[in-house]
Amino acid sequence: MRLDKLLTHLGIASRSGVRDVLKAGRVRVNGEAVKNPAFPVAEDADILLDGKRLDTRLTRHLMLHKPAGVLTAKEDNRQQTVMDVLPPLYTSLGCMPVGRLDKDTTGLLILTTDGELAHRLIAPERHVDKIYLATVDGTLEEKDRDAFATGIPLKDFTCLPAKLDILSPNLGRVTVREGKYHQIKRMFGAVGKPVLALHRQSFGPLALDEALAPGDFRELTENEIAALYAAAGLQHE
Ligand code: URA
After folding, report:
1. From ligand 1's centre to the CA of 45, what distance in Å?
2. Element (H, E) at 64
3. Model pLDDT, residue 125
């Protein structure tokens, strides 16, 4: 990859800004000052900016504790998105959310630069388990658990069987294998117990790291990345 392209992806500056950075002699590649924007750099090149080593990994996978009030989208003209919660580096690298949580939903959101991974994880036929905590208006009963287990009929489709654990009269933990638009809210709505608050605890093999406060994020560990690729049915090099 060209040096200017790499530095732009890493969010150092715009393409023209990067040229100025290079012209000023601030970048060294494998020990040599490089001013040529087209200089070809290998993936494992050692690159210093102002003497500081850059993390040149272009592939990143994150977990974000999505706070309430932000859209799950790559960008939006008017409203704050999950990308605005993260450092701009991740937007420069092309990170995208895996699936979608509603604006008022909190909890685990995975983001990745690997479009194929994101696509496979949310493909309807993939049936990746997701676990949500739902606080509802009403009292959850055994018959609701049975209805979830049978498959709730909605106007446009019948949900796959889902597991409802009643943790307290108005708090349910739901495990679903699909992820249709507003699905959890619609499922509880169908049994007459509207959702007041929704929080995602896990997505496939990954659980939300309890050390992350709303708005916090971290990159996934190697083990978590491997588990995610396996859940997607993809080989991870
Ligand atoms: N189901 C919903 O209704 N909302 C979400 O944000 C996620 C699942």
Report:
1. 42
2. strand 61-66
3. 87
Please count the other Cβ atoms lying within 10 Å of the Cβ belonging to residue 140: 22
Q: Is 183 in the pocket of ligand 1 (CB under 6 A)?
A: yes
Extract the tokens encoding 12.
């150092």
Q: Encoding tokens for residue 125?
A: 């036929």
67-to-82, 107, 156, 212, 214 alpha-carbon distances in Å: 9, 7, 30, 11, 5
Q: What is the pLDDT of the chain when averaged over all its residues?
A: 96
Q: Which two tokens stand for residue 129?
A: 């388990």
Local confidence band at 69 (pLDDT 50, 70, 90 cut-offs):
very high
Per-residue burial over 158-170, b if 16 or more Cβ lie within 10 Å, else e, is ebeebebeeeeee
Q: What is the pLDDT of residues 168-190, one digit of tens each?
A: 999 999 999 998 999 999 999 99
CA nearest ligand 1 atom 7, residue: 101
Q: How many CA atoms lie within 13 A of 130 on its CB side?
A: 27
102 close to ligand 1 (CB < 6 Angstrom): yes
User: And the tokens for 26?
Assistant: 């601030």
